[in-house]
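Predict structure. Input: RNA methyltransferase, 223 residues.
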Amino acid sequence: MTESSEIAAGPTEWGEHPYGVGPWAEEYGTEPPTDERYDPELLAEGDRRNVVDAYRYWKREAIVADIDARRFPFHVAIENFGHDANIGTVVRTANAFAAAAVHIVGKRRWNRRGAMVTDRYQHLVHHADLAELREYAETNGLEVVAVDNVPGSVPIETADLPRNCLLLFGQEGPGVSEDAKTAAALTVSIAQFGSTRSINAGVAAGIAMHAWIRQHGDLSLAW
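Output follows.
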């Protein structure tokens, strides 16, 4: 088990795109702050990153530290045995909901485009296989909850999700693997009403994370 250190520039950390703010002096007409959380280069040149206004001009390390102080105790894991393109979306959504960490099981490399550079602010952990992930969960007191529409699953709309849990998602198409189902203490499903057999794995992850937030999240911490 290793924490990922790969950083890749995404399509919208916004670069020259006209989002964000300009130099501090131009925006506010005052001398830049000297608080150590602020990045001198961003203060001088402007901040075009994909961050909320409260984090404008902050150093990346300061942003991560601030989120760390209020992260929620749920983790997210997704199997990556076939370079699933949904992983970036899962990472981005986990960042939005301040998940403790995202665990990628299987192949180390994954498509970062959908993350839109949120992997810079989200803790990522790699596991070679499900056995390693399960050991991590047991060591850290996390109950594994698989998310898949399979016989015997409990509707997530009515399920009591554990506060300290690891939400586990399979790949697009095959869903959660048999090994993952074995590792899970609980399997939940998402109600569907149309013709398709399953919904996108990235979408399913967002629904599941929000279900956890509705049950356990402190909404006073939201921006």
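DSSP finds seven helices and eight strands in the chain.
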